[in-house]
Design brief:
Layout (H helix, E strand, L loop, with lengths): L7 H18 L6 E5 L3 E5 L1
Length: 45
């Protein structure tokens, strides 16, 4: 784990970051961010 047990706010920060990154990358259809449940995220080209 990156943030430890009390990671709610830091986790929400990551959600906001990923959301903004997806919005930015939406212009390029060849790039996507995949959510892998229980693991994290993967950038696909």
């Amino acid at each position: 784990r990156i943030w430890g047990e009390n990671d709610y706010f830091m986790g929400r920060s990551m959600d906001v970051f990923i959301s903004r990154l997806r919005k930015y990358l939406k212009k390029d259809d060849s790039i996507s961010i995949e959510n892998i449940h229980g693991v994290g995220f993967r950038l696909n080209e």
